[in-house]
C-alpha cells in the first residue's frame, strides 16, 4: 500500500491510497470465502463452489465491491497511522480507480487555535438601569391584558376587534371564504393581505365593501406572491378595547399582595431590574468572548461547521413540532428550501464554532478543571429544575459517563467565561490603584 498526503487544507488531509495487487487479491479471496458459505450456487453444496464459478453466479463486480467493504476501513486505518494523523470525525472516502485500486480520503483534523493576548481585554458592562418609561410600559401591557372588549357604535378604527363575513377570489378561483371571522385591526398587518386592515377602517356595522388587493412579489406565501385578490367583506360586529384605570384597585387585581400602585410599581421595578441585570450580564459575556475570538486565529475542518448547522436546524425543528407545524409546511410558508435555510443558519454557526474553540483553548491555557463534586452538584441542580415525573430515572441517566462528560465540558466553559469576565473587568481596579 502506498499512501500520499497530497495536501492539508482547511484542517483536512487529502490522502491518496494506492493498494498493491496482492493486497486486493488477499482481500478478494477473504470476501469470497466468507460469501461462498452464504450463497447458494446451483450444482454445488454451500461453501464448495470454486471461485470462478462463484464469480459467474454472484457477479465479479459485486464481489469486488464486497471486497472493498472489508479493504477500505483497514486501508484507511493503516494510512492515518502511517501519516501520524489524528482524525476528529469520519473521513470522506471514494474509489478513484479500480485497476489499480486507488482510494481518495479527506480526513478532518483537529482544529488549530492561536490565541491572542486575551489578558489585555479591557471592558466594562453597561449599567443595569431601569427607567420610569420602562415601568410605565409594563403597566400599559398589564392594562391591555386585563382590558375588556365592549361593543362600539361607531366606525371601525385601528386596534378595534371586528367580526366579519369574508368572500374572496383570486383570478377565477375561490380564495378566502369565511363567516364570523374575528379580526383585530392592526395597522400595517399583512394578513390576510397587505392593506386589508386599512380597507376596513371607517366601515360601520352591517356595512359591506368590495375591494382588490395586490400581493407583493416577495410576499412570504409564495403561492399568492405577485397575484391580485378580490375581497368582499361585511362587518357584523365592532368592539373596542376598554382598559382599566391605573389605581390601587387595578394593582390589587394584578396581584392581591400589591395593595397599592406604589407597591405594584416597586415590584415591577424590581422584576425589571433583575431581568435587565441578567441581560446586561449576558451581553457583556458575549462581548468579552467576541473580543477574545477577534484577536485569535481559528482554523477547523468544515465537518465542525456542518455539525453546528445540524444542531441549529434540529433546534428549529423541535420548536416547530412544539407549535404543531412540520418542516415542509414551514418551508412552504416562507418560500425557502432546506438548503437555503441551512445557508441562513451558517453565519451564526460560524460564530459559535469559532467562539467555542477559542474558549476551549483558553480553558486549556488557564488549566481550567472541575471536580467530580462540582459535577454532582450540577446534576442535583438539573434534577431540581426537572419538571418530569420520574426524577430518579432522570438523575440516573445524568450519571451515565457520556452525560457526566458533557456536564463537565459545560462547567469548564462556564468557568472559563467567568475567568475572561474577571480579566476584562480587572483593568478598572488596576487603573484605580494606579
Description of the structure:
- The protein is an alpha+beta fold.
- The protein folds into 3 domains: 109 residues, Trigger factor ribosome-binding domain (Alpha-Beta Plaits); 95 residues, Chitinase A, domain 3 (Roll); 173 residues, Trigger factor, C-terminal domain (Trigger factor, domain 2, Orthogonal Bundle).
- It is 50% helix and 19% strand.
- It has 13 helices and 12 strands.
- The strands form 3 sheets. Strands 6, 7, 8, 9, 10 and 11 form a 6-stranded antiparallel sheet that branches. Strands 1-2-4-3 form a 4-stranded antiparallel sheet, covered by helices on one side. It has a two-stranded antiparallel sheet with strand order 5-12.
- It is extended and about 95 Å long.
- The protein starts with a strand and ends with a helix.
- The model has no long low-confidence stretch (mean pLDDT 93).
Question: Would you kindly provide a brief summary of this structure?
Answer:
By secondary structure, the protein is of the alpha+beta class.
Q: Which structural traits does this protein have?
A:
single chain, 434 residues, alpha+beta, Alpha-Beta Plaits, Chitinase A, domain 3, Trigger factor, domain 2, 3 domains, 6-stranded antiparallel beta sheet, 4-stranded antiparallel beta sheet, 13 helices, 12 strands, 19% strand
| Percent of residues in beta strands | 15-25%
Task: Please name the CATH topology of the largest domain.
Answer: Trigger factor, domain 2
Structure class: alpha+beta
State the fourth-level CATH superfamily of the largest domain: Trigger factor, C-terminal domain
Q: Give the name of the CATH architecture of the largest domain.
A: Orthogonal Bundle
CATH class of the largest domain: Mainly Alpha
Shape type: extended
Subunit arrangement of the protein? single chain
Number of helices: 13
Mean pLDDT: 93
N-to-C series of helices and strands: EEHHHEEEHEEEEHEEHHEHHHHHH
Amino acid at each position: 500500500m502506498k499512501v500520499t498526503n497530497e495536501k492539508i487544507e482547511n484542517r483536512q488531509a487529502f490522502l491518496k491510497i494506492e493498494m498493491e495487487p496482492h493486497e486486493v487479491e488477499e482481500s478478494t479471496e477473504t470476501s469470497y470465502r466468507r460469501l461462498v458459505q452464504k450463497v447458494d450456487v446451483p450444482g454445488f453444496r454451500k461453501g464448495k463452489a470454486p471461485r470462478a464459478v462463484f464469480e459467474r453466479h454472484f457477479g465479479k463486480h459485486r464481489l469486488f465491491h464486497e471486497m472493498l467493504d472489508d479493504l477500505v476501513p483497514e486501508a484507511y486505518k493503516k494510512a492515518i497511522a502511517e501519516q501520524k494523523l489524528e482524525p476528529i470525525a469520519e473521513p470522506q472516502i471514494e474509489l478513484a480507480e479500480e485497476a489499480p485500486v486507488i482510494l481518495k480520503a479527506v480526513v478532518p483534523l483537529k482544529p488549530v487555535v492561536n490565541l491572542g493576548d486575551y489578558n489585555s481585554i479591557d471592558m466594562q458592562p453597561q449599567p443595569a438601569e431601569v427607567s420610569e418609561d420602562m415601568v410605565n410600559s409594563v403597566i400599559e401591557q398589564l392594562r391591555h391584558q386585563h382590558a375588556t372588549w365592549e361593543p362600539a357604535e361607531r366606525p371601525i378604527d385601528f386596534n378595534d376587534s371586528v367580526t366579519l363575513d369574508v368572500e374572496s377570489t383570486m383570478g377565477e378561483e375561490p380564495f378566502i371564504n369565511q363567516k364570523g371571522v374575528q379580526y383585530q385591526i392592526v395597522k400595517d398587518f399583512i394578513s390576510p393581505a397587505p392593506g386589508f386592515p386599512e380597507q376596513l377602517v371607517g366601515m360601520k356595522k352591517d356595512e359591506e365593501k368590495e375591494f382588490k388587493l395586490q400581493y407583493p412579489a416577495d410576499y412570504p406565501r409564495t403561492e399568492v406572491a405577485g397575484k391580485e385578490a378580490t375581497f368582499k367583506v361585511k362587518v357584523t360586529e365592532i368592539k373596542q378595547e376598554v382598559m382599566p384605570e391605573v389605581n390601587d384597585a387595578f394593582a390589587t387585581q394584578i396581584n392581591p399582595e400589591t395593595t397599592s400602585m406604589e407597591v405594584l410599581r416597586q415590584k415591577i421595578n424590581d422584576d425589571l431590574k433583575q431581568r435587565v441585570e441578567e441581560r446586561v450580564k449576558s451581553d457583556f459575556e458575549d462581548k468579552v468572548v467576541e473580543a477574545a475570538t477577534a484577536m485569535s486565529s481559528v482554523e477547523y475542518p468544515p465537518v465542525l461547521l456542518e455539525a453546528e448547522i445540524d444542531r441549529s436546524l434540529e433546534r428549529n425543528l423541535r420548536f416547530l413540532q412544539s407549535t404543531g407545524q412540520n418542516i415542509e409546511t414551514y418551508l412552504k410558508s416562507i418560500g425557502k428550501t432546506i438548503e437555503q435555510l441551512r445557508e441562513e443558519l451558517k453565519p451564526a454557526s460560524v460564530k459559535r464554532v469559532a467562539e467555542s474553540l477559542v474558549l476551549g483553548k483558553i480553558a486549556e491555557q488557564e488549566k481550567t478543571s472541575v471536580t467530580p463534586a462540582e459535577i454532582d452538584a450540577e446534576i442535583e441542580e438539573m434534577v431540581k429544575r426537572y419538571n418530569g415525573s420520574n426524577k430518579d430515572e432522570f438523575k440516573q441517566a445524568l450519571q451515565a459517563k457520556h452525560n457526566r462528560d458533557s456536564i463537565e465540558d459545560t462547567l469548564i466553559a462556564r468557568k472559563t467565561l467567568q475567568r475572561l469576565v474577571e480579566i476584562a473587568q480587572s483593568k478598572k481596579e488596576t487603573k484605580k490603584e494606579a
